[in-house]
UniProtKB/TrEMBL annotation:
Subcellular location field: Membrane
PANTHER family: CORE-2/I-BRANCHING BETA-1,6-N-ACETYLGLUCOSAMINYLTRANSFERASE FAMILY PROTEIN-RELATED (PTHR31042), OS01G0695200 PROTEIN (PTHR31042:SF70)
Upper lineage: Eukaryota, Viridiplantae, Streptophyta, Embryophyta, Tracheophyta
Topology of this chain in the membrane: Single-pass type II membrane protein
UniProt signal peptide: 1-16
Name this polypeptide is given: Uncharacterized protein
Protein keywords: Glycoprotein, Glycosyltransferase, Membrane, Signal, Transferase
Amino acid sequence: MILLSFIFLLVAVVRINDTSPRLPDDVLEGNPRVAFMFLVRLDLPLDFLWHTFYENADAANYSIYIHSQPGFVFDETTTRSTFFYGRHLSNSIKVDWGKSSMIEAERLLLQAALENPTNQRFVLLSDSCVPLYNFSYSYSYLMRSSRSFVDSFLDMKEGRYNPRMASVIPMRKWRKGSQWIALLRSHAKVVAYDDVVFPIFKKLCKRRPPLDASKGKQNFKLQKQHNCIPDEHYVQTLLAMNNLEGELERRTVTYTSWVPFATNMEMKSWHPVTYTYASANPQQIKRIKDIRHVYYDTEHRTEWCKNSAAIFPCFLFARKFSRDGAMRLLTEENFDASASLHKSP
């Protein structure tokens, strides 16, 4: 069994390290673009804010892709912004939180975006994300960095790693982090065309079933199962398996505030704060923009937010914002349409 496991691991490493180009049209002609990839439940409720973000941008500098429910179309009847007309994927799938369909949808977005060779940066966003700066600042921030931005840290405290993965994914390569990534093209290919780690996640990385009062004592048995949330582990673990962590800024550029939450039937867990009109005030937005480092207690590591060796604000985007919270960004000075990213703000 030990020999068999070693053979499986060796084959997986060989296949993972095969980074030969899969796209024949990688010659860059024209401006390098940022591919904005929106992973949404249905529509884009904050499209009015993103419209402001894109309206003064050079259309040659960005591309937009949206993964929504199968059959949902972005047109004049479903969005107030012309920037999103026809940007939906035609091959979208039904996505369930805590299941591998979430990372499958991310891969579909990456595969679609990679078809355009001018797309050089790939940013994953949700339907509750907002931009904190104007397009020029965000574009320059992403393009000036030679690294991907991937929140990634050791996951040693929780029982999410399934030992049955060991034949392909050794525990020392197991990582956790935010799903909201910003990738270089080379790293986007690794994620989009991975055929080794993804099948293992699909089979063995599954969310623990929620507590059910009707099941009584059986809940204790259910809660001993591995509680693996695929979108919090997949990209981070895959890039670690490819020995690419040295090419990353191991942090996200999308801010989320987490608070503990529990009900009578649930163990304490962490949930993202939703910013409403009241909480999306100038003082709060300034506090987010002023963050320059992130601390990871599992690694006793402070990640300074660097960009080409200079210290910069950590975050370009933030979530989760309600519609009235996003509207306040337009009416207050929070969303600075004149910000320049040729210097640190």
